[in-house]
């Protein structure tokens, strides 16, 4: 159960890295949390670092007596496949990292334009 919780946290972190910039539209200070998380997430993909949540999840599964490659419930079927898709190669990881950069550049560009327009009308 603890390993499933780590997978859920892992999925939420990935979603935050990819889409967390949207929070800055309404809460500009969210950038202080999102930007370091996004840089770290991109570094994991682009440089090939291992996210610390992955070994933690594997260790918890082993400690619980389960194999690392579970095929059973919702977590294993949907979230694990999302986080560790089949065919995940270093080249695919670079593409994913670039996609994260592109999404966040677009979001922060939109946020900057909105702020600039607000200042111009004030």
Automatic annotation (TrEMBL):
The keyword Transmembrane applies. It comes from the Bacteria. Keywords: Membrane, Transmembrane, Transmembrane helix. The chain crosses the membrane at residues 6-25, 91-113. Pfam families: DUF2784 (PF10861). This is DUF2784 family protein. The lineage of its organism: Bacteria, Pseudomonadati, Pseudomonadota, Betaproteobacteria, Rhodocyclales.
């Amino acid at each position: 159960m603890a390993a499933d919780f780590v997978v859920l946290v892992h999925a939420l972190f990935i979603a935050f890295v990819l889409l967390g910039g949207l929070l800055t539209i309404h809460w500009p200070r969210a950038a202080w949390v999102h930007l370091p998380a996004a840089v770290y997430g991109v570094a994991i993909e682009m440089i090939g670092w291992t996210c610390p949540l992955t070994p933690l999840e594997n260790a918890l599964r082993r400690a619980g007596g389960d194999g690392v490659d579970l095929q059973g419930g919702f977590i294993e079927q949907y979230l694990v496949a999302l986080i560790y898709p089949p065919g995940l190669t270093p080249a695919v990881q670079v593409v994913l990292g670039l996609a994260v950069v592109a999404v966040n550049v677009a979001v922060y560009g939109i946020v900057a334009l909105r702020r600039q327009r607000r200042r111009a009308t004030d």
